[in-house]
Amino acid sequence: MTRVPDVPEVTDVVVIGSGVAGLSTALGLAATRDVLLLSAGDGSTPWAQGGVSAAYGEDDPLDHSHDTQVAGAGFCDPRNVRALVEEGPQRLAELIAHGARFDRNGDGSLSRTLEGGHSRPRIVHAGGDATGAEVHRALVTALRQTSVRTITGRTVGLLQSESGGIVGVLVEAGGEVTQIEARAVVLATGGIGNAYLASTNPSMVRGDGIALALRAGASLVDMEFVQFHPTALYTGETSGQLPLVTEAVRGEGAVLRDAHGRRIMAGRHPRADLAPRDIVARAIEATMRRDGSGHVWLDATDVAPDVLRKRFPTVLASCARIGVDMLSEQIPVAPAEHFLCGGVRTDRNGATDVPGLYAVGEVAATGVHGANRLASNSLLEGLVFGRRVATALTLDLPPKDLGRAHQLMLGDDRQPERIRSILSRYAGIRRDGAGLNAAADELDALGTGPLATVARAVVVAATARRDSRGCHWRSDHPQADERWDEHIVVRLDREGRPTTVPSPDARSAVDTAVALGRARVELQRAGTDE
After folding, report:
1. Which of 516, 473, 507 is nearest to 488 (CA)?
2. H-helix or E-strand containing 156?
3. What pTM did the predictor assign?
4. Among 192, 213, 169, 215, CA closest to 451
5. Nearest 5°: phi and psi at 522?
6. Which residue numbers in the chain have pLDDT < 50?
């Protein structure tokens, strides 16, 4: 195999991904472990506009927990939600200590705003609506002061030992591929945005981490819960990355209107335009379908111009690029894929059910988002669970596996645009059994490349869940049904295609598998065969 110059052949931990979750993990490990950070780009973090939600100062973590679980439609893991809201303020304080410059009031206190699903203003922000970029800058700056090495390249495979553990990665950089051995590999690869035609995610976010985990034998859970942001800027384009119009604009008083000027959310939910994202996105989709329109309107003309200029310079600039002055004109908006609430199943410290493989951030299913993510909880999740993964690997790094390893390669997709079209058509905001079955048949003919694998994982999970909750809505089963309160688990079948597997309790099944994986590690340490 060709060697990529300046890439180490052996390290303690490889972190794949340089968004908030990957950077937080690497930073937390920097003082105790030899760490290599693999970056294929900055991911979705720099594009995050709204902010970081945290019970910081006088806010109560119990209220934050309640709002998170209400938005998650009762499908959140209460233990991990508790970790999120209780540890969040400390992680935010550490981020500020690293130099993150959040917006402040005249008295020096943090400026906090309101977003959909929140019962009180608890969203801290930076640069008005450039929070993700500032969080990313602060973490990158802090990481540069450590010994962590960063390599730019795409991870194209994993190394798996004969006993089933992950013992390294294959990375492509500069047109060459090299093998890096590691005692632990952390997936921090983000979501699946570009498995859909239109997304708020950058083009490199396409679900590679999901596909890698499946090939390694890991379990996925809650893949049907794909969140669509209600208000991406309608530019006339129907594919690619679309500019986001943060819901903090609605937090400042903007309202959604249809083509006739009528308020869309009036009477639909007690919080109206600040209802949880799934409710707003479905209302917009229904309005667009009724009116035969490609978008609706976001009206911010009653918000003070000075507030808009100060709080939303990014949105102002995006609107200006398509000839819209949001100070005096309504903004054309439509839903777009935004965030995966499910993913690779992990325990509280990021361990998957494959020894040596960890996951954190949007690629991981920690259970904190349930069936629908509460606004601005994603940056917080990356900070909190990135530190938890780092702490776990500081205390207990898997031993070096001296056995022979084989390569698990991602491979290539046939007709990626067709795959995106299938997923967008049949597994978008509105779904039904007939469409999902058609999607599965069409995807089966397109092989087992990473994009096809991710798309099929979403489709089979959505097919299996025959009720509606959170951001999964089926027109043929429009109500929540207590018979479907269990989680949907997805694994690869013998032909390498995602399929659902029976499990009355996904968390119990994965926790058991994680425990078995740890038992194998202990046996290796003791020099004992299973």
Report:
1. 507
2. strand 154-161
3. 0.91
4. 192
5. -65, -40
6. 1-4, 504, 506-510, 512-513, 516-530
